């Protein structure tokens, strides 16, 4: 059997039975959620943020994830719904005066309460240790216990005085059913935000078109001199005969004809000056008396 050396195997070493189910302490698991980051599993330290599903994170851990989503990290399933900084809210927490930090009992001669929470409710004084239900407001980020919100019913925050609605209350570290309801509410808010953005874009496009058309309609019409339209037919010839060069500018036909004449004269003058540079021009031609005989010369530098 391969048991050399006189070893005697037992039955549980040879026969493989069913795996034992590991029992997880629910109280320890819930306490860990309220003291550790859901992404990095480090102890919660300020600034602390929460998502729309009520999970607690360290802000630096979430920012590192958003900057580099390709890096391999554990517990990335808890942050897949976070698209950017707009999907998270920084919490306004109240410190617990009885919390003295981790590993405060170095000698082991003092009783250490593991269930002691880091933060408490500012209204009732309950500790955030997993035993009590806590919520936060999306408007301001203040955190209260569910008991405080039920006993003191109001639409104004107890801590900062900012208004809120029932939809702005989000449960922290809730059950699966509560997380499912929060997810549905989150998807509805995002769908409404998309429709609003589309409507705003359409309204802006319509405003730009309206302003463009209005600017064209409001453009001033060309001004017409009433004296020109009120001139009699008989007085045109007399005024044109007496008027000087300033009156000729008023008549478009006369102005265009004079401009054409001037331009033609200027062109002819310029062309004559340009032609005079060449020997083929009439001014460059010489008579027979002015022309000299040709002198032949045989060069010897070939």
Notes on the protein architecture:
It is a single chain. This protein has 302 residues and is mainly α. Helices cover 37% and strands 8% of the residues. The chain has 9 helices and 8 strands. It has helices at 11-14, 26-35, 59-67, 146-151, 176-217, 226-229, 235-242, 245-248, 252-275; strands spanning 48-51, 56-58, 88-90, 94-95, 119-120, 134-137, 143-145, 169-171. The protein has a 3-stranded antiparallel beta sheet. It has a 3-stranded antiparallel beta sheet with strand order 7-6-8. A hairpin with a 5-residue loop joins strand 6 (134-137) and strand 7. The protein is elongated and about 145 Å long.
What is the strand and helix layout of this fold?
Elements: H1 11-14, H2 26-35, E1 48-51, E2 56-58, H3 59-67, E3 88-90, E4 94-95, E5 119-120, E6 134-137, E7 143-145, H4 146-151, E8 169-171, H5 176-217, H6 226-229, H7 235-242, H8 245-248, H9 252-275
Antiparallel strand pairs: 1-2, 1-3, 4-5, 6-7, 6-8
